[in-house]
Amino acid sequence: MGIVSPGFAGRRRSGSEKLPPGQYLVTDFPVLSAGPTPRVDTGKWELRIRSETGRVYTWDWAAFLRLPSEDITVDIHCVTKWSKFGTGWRGVSVDTLLADVETSAEFALARSYGGYTTNLPLQDLLGGQAWVAYRYDGQDLAPEHGGPARLLVPHLYFWKSAKWVNGIDLMAKDQQGFWESLGYHNYGDPWREQRYWGD
Amino acid sequence: MARAAVLGRLNWLVGTVAAVRDETPTARTLVLDVPGWPGHAAGQHVDVRLTAPDGYSAQRSYSIASAADGNRLELTVQRLADGEVSPYLAQTLEVGYPLELRGPIGGWFVWDPADPADPAPVLLVAGGSGIVPLMAMIRARAAAASKVPFRLVYSVRSPDTVIYSGELLAREQASEPDGVSVTYVYTRTAPPRSDVPPGRISPAALAVDGWLPRQAPAVFACGPTGYVEAVAGILTRAGHDPGVIKTERFGPTGG
After folding, report:
1. Residue B7: what pLDDT?
2. Nearest C-alpha of chain A: how many angstroms from B221?
3. Does residue A16 have a pLDDT over 80?
């Protein structure tokens, strides 16, 4: 426990037992991005998975939408401290995308329109833990929230859920993504409060 | 420097409030002495942690307002009516009180006057309390006696909500090339003698010779989400490379 702040009582809210350490609950959906919001035409949209041997698997928007999809309701946690409970999405499981991909890679780097990247162990994208989501709260995913499609990896801090995702590179060796190279934690587990390097 | 400032583990430090300064009716600057502060780049932020007697704690992030200056650090906090942390910082906290924080955090939204690879003119676009990290850049430029051309476009509801108004006036009136070009955009109430009616930020306010797309300025935009979205849209449509526009957004929530 930290030092006591004289005169601070705080505001405990119901449901806070579901909050990871250091987080607070919001009901709106804040937006955090490092640059301008890319406007991506679904007519030109493409998702590319590249294996460690260089083999590339691609889907255009129509082919992507033909894949089996799921409704997902999850809590999300942003490293800037807000958490939001019970967010509703529709997306394609990464298990589905990787079903026919031959790989022995251990790491993944997600890539986005606009140049953003984020890295994860491949294991964290598998086993029903990660999706490429294209609808939020019953609507098409808005550009400022990562539309037309974003990665959704709710068990890690939300910067790992790359907005405007357009590719996943599968790699034998780990490679830092954008925020990971700028002081943010390589893995980002909110329950262990892995916000920054060394946490 | 920007990279170096985020290296290593970020331990919690205990600062002491050395002074407080009211900037507007709802914004206050905290001047902190923080033994062990590792230094920072202009544009970075800190995490602040408050702890109640029963161990309950709350954390929020606040931008650093000051240029690097040893163990001294300034934060400017906008009080949110329904906030949990900001009313404590902007009202309860007094000189001599301890404050726990760690940082500096963020290696992207930074400007370094010593970076020889970045001599480009700088366009700062602030909305409301989004001025805070941009003020750190203005102060870092002055501290380094940098001659890089700086322009600030600062959108506020009304004249009484301008943070740092006196200091900005002085920097605006400094002789070339030390001065900073400052333009205010009043969204609700303009000053009495203003010849521009209140309204949202326009493309014209962001299109001034010296910081045009062909002059390739580095752009830093900070403010509420809708404002930053509008600014980034205007600049991108005007021909600025999206890759040189760095943004910090904050939502209606916060602390």
Report:
1. 59
2. 9
3. no
pLDDT reported for residue B116:
64
Contact criterion met (CB < 8 Å) for A36 and B12: no
The pLDDT score that the predictor gives to residue A23 is 94
Domains recognised in chain A with CATH numbers: 21-26+44-192 (3.90.420.10)
Contacts with B47 from chain A: Cβ below 8 Å: 81, 195
Q: What is the DSSP string of B121-145?
A: -EEEEEEGGGHHHHHHHHHHHHHTT
Interchain contact, A1 vs B55, CB within 8 Å: yes
**What amino acid occupies position A73?**
T
With CB atoms and an 8 Å threshold, state whether B232 touches A35.
yes
Min Cα distance B125 → chain A (Å) is 13
pTM over 0.90: yes
Which listed CATH number (1.10.3720.10, 3.30.470.20, 3.40.50.80, 1.20.1540.10) goes with B122-250?
3.40.50.80
Could you tell me which residues of chain A have a Cβ less than 8 Å from any Cβ in chain B?
Answer: 1-12, 22, 24, 26-38, 80-82, 114-115, 144, 178-179, 181-183, 195-199
CB A137 within 8 A of CB A145: no
Tell me the ipTM for this assembly. 0.91
Taking only the tens place, the pLDDT of each residue in A134-182 is 999 999 999 999 999 999 999 999 999 999 999 999 999 999 999 999 9
* pLDDT-based confidence at residue A33 (cuts at 50, 70, 90): confident
b vs e for A135-149, b when ≥16 Cβ sit within 10 Å of the residue's Cβ?
bbeeeebebbbbbbb
Positive or negative, the CA dihedral B28, B33, B35, B36 is: positive
How far apart are the C-alpha atoms of B155 and B135, rounded to whole Å? Answer: 14
User: With an 8 Å Cβ cutoff, are A183 and B60 in contact?
Assistant: no
